[in-house]
Amino acid sequence: MLTASHLTRRFDARVAVDDLSFELPAGEIFALLGPNGAGKTTTLRMLAGLIAPSAGTVHVAGELMSIDASHLRGRIGFLTEAPGLWDRLTVYDNLMTYARLQGVTAERQAVRTALDLFGIADRAHDRAAQLSKGLKQRVALARTLIHNPPVVLLDEPTAGLDPESAHETRALILRLRSEQRTVVISTHNLDEVDRVADRVAVLRTRLIAVGTPAALRARLFGTRLTISLAAPAAQYERTVQAAGGRHLRIEGHTISLALDGDAAATPRIVRALVEAGADVLSVVPDEPTLEEVYLRLVREEPR
Length: 303
Description:
Layout: E1 2-11, E2 14-24, E3 29-33, H1 40-47, E4 55-60, E5 63-64, H2 70-73, E6 76-79, H3 91-101, H4 107-117, H5 133-145, E7 151-155, H6 163-178, E8 182-186, H7 190-196, E9 199-204, E10 206-211, H8 213-221, E11 224-229, H9 237-242, E12 246-251, E13 254-258, H10 265-275, E14 280-285, H11 290-300
Helix pairs in contact: 3-4, 4-5, 8-11
């Protein structure tokens, strides 16, 4: 559905994005991660056809995107980091104006549906300038989706939202995936990414890494388990090592260990512990957070 090939963008002597490529099918949520200035927003603007790449191409459903391809830009919904509403217009008029700009048929019904979907029907006649930051973000999200685009680009979609509204927005993003839309998210909220993204790309001008969160965890940290026992764990250190556990960390009644890619190691280690007289209370994956994965990638990449 959305393909970026060797995207590069320069601003005078500064390279903002360097040789970025990826291919996104329908029904995938793809997250762009990176520090400030890494090129995330510039990438979104090129994907949306708002700025032309200095080199490389963007294709939407096989068609070449350009700043003149208005029919392709109409297939994209773009939530910018700033809501970008017309302050003197009401919420209703903001949505109605955008629906007409996008050529939405039955625009009044589309606006009413958007107002209900985002829980802002009671603010329809308030001017945008009167809204809180969180409410402006809801209106901006409604505007982004009002023309039912198959590709949705979201720059910090939950910025300024209270926890309940952020939860509702995440549910909406997951619904977009179930509707077979292609969703690209740029955010610093790594917990949010862990909850919704199918794949993540870590940028720092150029692509550092791309993959599923699970694959990136395994690549950087390997597969680890934490085993909780009824008795102090130190007495079973040799038992676990003999059964294939590696890089043990023992604390109190728990053992954390690496499996080194051995899929059969878990039942073998548990069986060895039981045979050694241990009462095993739980066996759970010992997964690093996405934040730990992200920080290792960014810190280890040469500047």
